[in-house]
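Components:
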Amino acid sequence: MTGLTVFALTGAALVGLGFYGLLAARHLLRRVVAFNLIGSGLFLFFGAAGARGVGPDPVPQALIITGIVVALSATALAVGLVVVHARAAGHAVLPEEPEEPEEPKDEGAT
Amino acid sequence: MSLALDLALCALILGVALATVAGSGLFRAIVFFIVYGLLVAVGWVRLGAIDVALAEAAIGAGLTGVLLLAAHGRLRRLGTARDASHGAHLLSALAGAALAAALAWAWFVLPLPERPGPELAAAMPRAGVENPVTAVLLNFRAWDTLLESIVLLAALIGLWMLTRERDWSGRLGLPQHSRAGGVLASFGRVLPPVGLLIGVWLVWAGADRHGGAFQGGTVLAAVGLVAAMAGLVRPPRIGARLWHVALMIGPAVFVLAGLAGAILAGEFLTLPPPIAKPAILTIEIALTASIAATLAFLVLGPPEEGRAP
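Structure:
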């Protein structure tokens, strides 16, 4: 097991964690954060893949830098939308699902 | 030894990411996410990608952190920062685990790329700069970077469109106030000169060493943000003409350089080797101005005068 494999598997796990957060979190801002985790994990995976062989490859690095900047601009727009939604609706937390397709036992009743 | 360091670092990254996703409380999640960004930046250093590490620390941890904290403040003013707990979400956990497993599987079956990119090594003498990452960003794959600078502008326009009618002529962001003689007021005086120097250095050195327009522009944006938060400068209004020029000069110079390449070298965005270095420097300087202004405005957010009457 090399250092690159460690980072690639970490990236894979981060994507999974972020995806879980994106689906499970109920506050919209936390979903935005989780979405950023997915992106960051993918960058790590991609960067590790690009560094195999002799050393870090500049082409993936340039694409990742581009990706980081685009992720920030998308986050800024998403955060703006969350704030506007909160102002219009009076809440930023998604309501509890009315019906759970496969798990009928957990009932929040808030 | 170094493998042990990598393992420890990755364990830390995963632990902090888990705290971000599964911990309770919105504010805590944001703080953990900032710590996470800094740890990932260290990870990029371990991977030998210094330029990415600089971008991750400045943008991923720094600006995104400020953005999220500011959003938390706005939501709290609206009384909507309270997080609802999400119980164990079995299906989501399964989906996340499946995705992670699929990626891990992909890592072990991916074919090894041909190394070390012979095309890039052969093309580097024609690039005009020594830093291969800068060469890729501004010369060989300039299309990506040009479109990216336009994406930034599009995001800013989208954000400004969320402004309420009565706030439209106000200054960007929330009204800032810092206690006279407090930490922010004095910090806001000490940091900007240092940041300015570092930002300009990152852009200038980015041609041949680590750094570049994005990292430098981000530091300059941070300088502006600190000065604005400390109340030393007041953010502009949406209609300020001079700032429109700053926002657009980067993409504009980029397109002009591309057209010049079309005339001189016969293809859009192709920089002929004799003028590559001055062309890249010109584009980088103009792009830095636009990136710094756009990022700072994105983080400040649309104008918001205060509580709704």
